[in-house]
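Page 42, continued from yesterday. The earlier attempt failed because a stray header line got pasted into the input along with the sequence. Redoing it now with the clean sequence only.
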Amino acid sequence: MTDDPTFPVDLSNCDREPIHLLGRIQSFGTLVAVSMDWMISHVSANIAEITGRTPDDCLGLPLADLLPGSSLHDIRDRLQGLAPGEGSERLFGIDLFGNGRRFDVAIHITGPSIVIEVEPVIPVPASSGTLVKTMIGRIERTPSMDALYTEAVRQLRAVTGFDRVMLYRFAPDGSGEVTAEALRRGIEPFLGLNYPATDIPAQARRLYVKNRTRIIADVADPTVPVVPTTSPDGTVLDLSLSVTRAVSPIHVEYLTNMGVGASFSISIVIGGELWGLFALHHYAPRRLSMELRATLELFGQIVALVIEGRLAKALRQSEEAARDLHDKVVGRLVSTSPSPDELINFAADFREMIPADGFAVWSEGKVKTSGICPFADDMPGLARFLNRAAASRVYATSELSAVYPKAHDFMDRAAGILAIPISRSPRDYLIFFRRELVETVTWAGDPAHKETSFGPNGPRLSPRKSFEAWQETVRGKSALWSLAERKSAEALRVAILEVLLKFTEENERVRQAASQRQELLIAELNHRVRNILAVIRAVVLQSRGSAVSVDDFAKIIGGRIQALARAHDQITDSAFAAQSLEGLIRTEAEAYVGEKAGRVELSGPPVLVNAEAFSTLALVMHEMVTNSAKYGALSDSTGIVHVDWTLDDTDSCVIGWREAGGPAVQAPTRRGFGSTIIERSIPHELGGESELFWRLKGLEARFVLPSKVISLGASNAAPAPRAPEPAPAETELTGLTALLVEDNMIMALDAEQLLLEKGLGNVLTAMSLADAQRIVAEEPVDIAMLDVNLGRETSFPLIPVLNAKGIPYVFVTGYGETMELPAEAAPGTPSIKKPYSADDVLEALAQIAHRRG
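This time it went through. Structure tokens are written below.
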């Protein structure tokens, strides 16, 4: 299925009609498809309306015989930034055929073809930029998500004049609900109605992501075929990105059943997924100009960003609250080190973290419960069912009976569960239960009532004819487990594994040795991966304010992520040689506090840390730096950390850590995982010493590394990373000054960057003939790259001046092979045809570089 209908439609059998769906367009548009050599390969049957030619006359015709050179130039300019199957470019209000008639043009590339779609101009009352700015300004001032949705549909109805504008939001199962609506008086509201997933199936949703807007100007208007139906190689012309492509007759029937005369849709895409749609209905034919549709497409993209930002903020606040609660509960767990069956004593704390009607601990074949849970006799079968899931993942469902039929017996007590595995073998669980939530859903018609009809392709399901509100009572489901609750469950799983491992090590060391090690590795891996991802996310977010440009932002992000990678390698690699102590500390500071690393002052002799001790010390320094960044001297803008080291009488290395100028410090009320690493790692792993002193003015620490794990080195600085090998220079172009004459700013910037990257010393850009003449007169120029067409003038008048100064030049043109150079042009002067590649430019410039005289 390759068609994308506009909200909503049943496409159960549309994939049997690819020619009909892909090979027709709406009557208000005209289509021309040309191969890459600019020969016309497909046309729409109504092409005679604007060209005076029949389809047979156009097929196989060079495009230059249909369009004047100025239009070809404009089209080639737009093609410069296009890639096959990725978006489209538009031209508004151009004199396409040189006869005074103005048209809007959409251009995209599909496979070997360039598709050009033409629509007569409809004047737009306001500028696109002003319109979007005004609409978005009102959107951003809304105080809540519901107000945002309402204001968005109100703005769209005011701008388009459609009778009804709806915001249609998708649920995880593919069904959708009308969550906001603006409509004219006298028509029935659809607000709050639900539509089944089959109304907009998955293949249609994928195309809504690819092609963000869809117009049906007149539901009853006959469509126009594209001829021929297939290319010479037998393939059908793919019109997935077409702006005038006709839709399935099933969708037309669907809209007719709703009484709709015209429709328009705007996709809301968040995170690469179709989050929802703006669906516009009119009860008479109505066509919007291509320029207005493009403006509203931009409006939809900006609204999607605003919604995404607000959703992310709400999730972040929820996660922060859950994290605070998680830390409190884990603190109690660590202090008591309970056995698995004693975890039932924390039921109230756990249910505060993850709201539930009941909680159970299943351990060693026995169950303990709190709140409303299934009966004890039901638990062994439920545990066997859970054993089919992964041992290291949280399992959650809001409709247990759908995957475990025996759950029907206790559906009134537990319709949904969230299970946290806390051991691998035997499999034990913490299980949260939620009761059945009986819900009444209002559908737009009975979603199950569809009629079967027979057509040329066999039986198919016809669209519903009734859209009156139809209510359904949903049973057997609980409230959904939110993403934040699932994350809390995963964090709780890791914390409990650490607590239980400690208990097991102290009480069952011999019997459970193998199981302990396995669970430790799983918990540690999960813990470290989550920390690394959190750090990277923080680096990206915090780097926005320090960047002044996109390139600067990319450079900052790249440098910080490289620092993170180096620190991670230092912690995990066990096969490297002795490394610098100063380099170890500095790497951790740069990787985790970025620009604050300059406030970490280091001093001491050139000490190297042996391989067997490096990872342990790196982990301790990591915890010291991150603690300082969270709570100590590096948590504000004034604090300083002093780290110095000396060798004592036994040749041991004594490291002193002193923080000053930061917030007041108090000893923690509980000992967490990080504190344990700091205090115990060096004594336990290396036979050294670790001491922490919680001074009010700042944390102080003393670490002693025994002589067996250190040595003196030639330098106490971290080895500088090896510079990348320089790219081979373009020997004939290196250091030259080029004159670039181009009136399109975007193309000029692209060409300038290309030339500088290939070794040219300077690029002087001119946007007009006058600018170019001034540069040639005042500046030393070695070579020139000239765009022939500069709007109302050409670059040809530069030829005598360049010839007189002995400056070689190359032409860039959008006119193709038909362009003739003036007689005074230097013999053999090359020309580059748009759209051009980097290789084209370099080859032409290299060809003329040796002529400099």
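Notes: The radius of gyration is 35 Å.
Reminder to self: strip header lines before submitting.
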